[in-house]
Specification:
By secondary structure, the protein is an alpha/beta fold. The protein is 31% helix and 26% strand. The chain contains 14 helices and 24 strands. Helix 1 runs parallel beside helix 2 and helix 4 packs parallel to helix 6. It binds ligand EPZ.
Length: 417
Amino acid sequence: MEKYIIEGGRPLYGEVEIQSAKNAVLPLLAASILTDEKIVLHKCPKISDVINMVGILGELGCKAEFVGDSLSIESADAANHEIPAALAKEIRSSVFMLGSVVSRFKKAKIAYPGGCDIGLRPIDLHLKGLRRLGVSVVEDGGYIECSCDKIIGSEIVLDCPSVGATENSILAAALGEGRTVIRNAAKEPEIVDLQNFINAMGGKINGAGTAEIVIDGVKKLHGVEYTPISDRIEAGTFLIACAMCGGEIELKNAGKENIAALLHKLCEISCKITAVNDKIYIESGRRISPKLIETSPYPGFPTDLQAPMMALACICEGSTVIVENLFETRFKHIPELIRMGADITVRGRTAFIRGVKALHGADVVAGDLRGGAALTLAAISAEGFSTVADLSFIDRGYSDFEYKLRALGARIRRVRI
Ligand code: EPZ
């Protein structure tokens, strides 16, 4: 296991390049097997979720190779429709493979997906979407087996705007026969990126980013070179880091429109923010409590920034209420923040935070990806020394996290224990 050793209390200055979005790259990798021609994804982060997804593609018979930060995938020889449990259990996005594998091979077998333990994370809407498209889905002994003669376009109405279920339905329908309409679709920017990617391959998809997505199935998709959108959650994480530590930083390759909900909250807290093209500049301010944060599907406040925002709320003047509406157990970071001197009470999915002047160093342990990032931000802003253990969570979604923070002035280093 590895941990960070951090000496907190230093302001952040400088610039940081934002990676391509983890939650865009993963569905694009699933889409790569919809063609037997070469796919190249540029500026691809070498994070463990991507490496695991590449491992899954390898099991299917695809050839994948990193050249610098460009990842190429060739699936002409792909022939296996089964994803081993050991790999499927590593990541949530293994479930996206169902739609693309059954579209390519007309059958698929996969164990229930893994991913951060932030709630029940059912996949009923994924399976409902596939059944609507004419796919037979059998759940047996922890495995899901899918088969069909062909994918037939249909109307899919999602009970809730699930990101993954929207993406899986798009992946299954792209090569289907006829028109598929997804209603109550998720509107996340990563879904727009999936639409743009498949359309660049010759697909016919419209409406991503709205609640109604129309997919006209095509006979074939061709290879393409593509640069995914930047990671709005990584960008938000660094903006919150600056708001907590003080200083002034500039983000490069950061789209302001994808994090409007966070930018508004940071302005409420009294940060000064300017955004020009793909750069966002932030100067920290007095840290006045944001009062209320409620996570909701895009374009609402993103659940993936709930934990980092809570770390910031811990050192704001005044009280903040944070409500986590999407996942049942996404408060694992709270006991660890309390060890650092935070004043937080929890009732169900609602956290009541009373701001303190500063957190103090402590030895803390991450329980999931975004909670690990939140604890790291708390430690670099706290007075004194901290350690943050189990970096395997952070490594799932942030590339070069400690290098980027160190380049901004934080005293942080990784050690093996
Ligand atoms: C995606 O997860 C992201 N992961 C998550 O990011 C993100 O938190 C989440 O969307 C919400 O924005 C990837 O894209 C790989 P959902 P996903 O399906 O698709 C319920 C991170 O930290 N639901 O939109 O699993 C579910 O219980 C990760 O980067 C069903 O009821 O999220 C939840 O309450 C964490 N049935 C809500 O929908 C289903 O079949 C949102 O889940 C599917 C979901």
